[in-house]
């Protein structure tokens, strides 16, 4: 069976650096930090009192009041990002109906979230605990909370009747969604799939839970510099929120309707560490296998890759094993590759991380700009000084091929490769 080619024809986002693609790309290039004191709730008693929140988001600007109450924040983000991507891809007409020639039976949605509606769950259980024991739950409690619901709402909004589901693999979730979407189109199961991920865990349960694990930075005196991958002073990740969306489309289908093509999705790889509940394999073996599988799937050699967007969460345990895994795969070519962690700016969007990082890869390919790793004031001496971590400022470079890594609690590893269309 000859596999069909898959390209990106639409992009959208709402995240801590911007509420649309242009804002996001501009701030990525500038090296802006999205970390600020938490405004969603009173965090004064928490070990961590800051996060990378979405700024200036009013759901009533996107949904009517009655509709908005049916959506957890992670679903609101998903719908906003997906709308931008669908419009960008030209799947809708001027009246917001589906454009002529789009077969809705052949359009699917594969979305991702690592946690889903944790805010809804927290609020409903808190309200019950405050009462007299009489169950007074919101009838939308379960539909708002479940992780798959964002994919359902996107399909219902546009009438997309193709494959529809959610991938859940912690912080690896969005890359798994992209890999599934890639394969469904390759295999002829769909012509177009709206894919991406969203998360909204900046709430007492999310911050408190990760604090209990000692996973979050506690640099409360200087939030903007708290996410510092590869720095000797890194002390944990910074929670982020938001969504990223891609419209993936079969190449000939996209050409036939004159769609703009940003990049080609050429391969994906997956593996498991089978090592520890939350810590990565110290040698990066699982990460290496995912990258090797992605290169094999894409029919590429390590020497073909120009840019790697790392998982790079800014945790003491996580950053070095990934670089070790990269070096084992790429050998001396690692010194010719630009590497950066955009989590230094966006924070960690958990299940939505790979979605906004895929967009960073697309920016690198489409605009020839490699986003930086910010906040590194003292580079970890364990890191080979010859590795180009793109520190401090963006670098202009012609990027033909970009690789994106994401890894999740439970040992889930996923890698996706994007390439300039030839």
Automatic annotation (TrEMBL):
Swiss-Prot/TrEMBL GO biological process terms: fatty acid biosynthetic process
Pfam families in the record: ketoacyl-synt, Ketoacyl-synt_C
Membership in a protein family: Belongs to the thiolase-like superfamily. Beta-ketoacyl-ACP synthases family.
The protein's role, per its UniProt record: Involved in the type II fatty acid elongation cycle. Catalyzes the elongation of a wide range of acyl-ACP by the addition of two carbons from malonyl-ACP to an acyl acceptor. Can efficiently catalyze the conversion of palmitoleoyl-ACP (cis-hexadec-9-enoyl-ACP) to cis-vaccenoyl-ACP (cis-octadec-11-enoyl-ACP), an essential step in the thermal regulation of fatty acid composition.
Residue positions of the active site: 171 (for beta-ketoacyl synthase activity)
Molecular function in Gene Ontology: 3-oxoacyl-[acyl-carrier-protein] synthase activity
Keyword Lipid metabolism on entry: yes
Protein name (Swiss-Prot/TrEMBL): 3-oxoacyl-[acyl-carrier-protein] synthase 2
GO cellular component: cytosol
Database matches in InterPro entries: 3-oxoacyl-ACP_synth-2, Beta-ketoacyl_synthase, Ketoacyl_synth_AS, Ketoacyl_synth_C, Ketoacyl_synth_N, PKS_Beta-ketoAc_synthase_dom, Thiolase-like
Domain of life: Bacteria
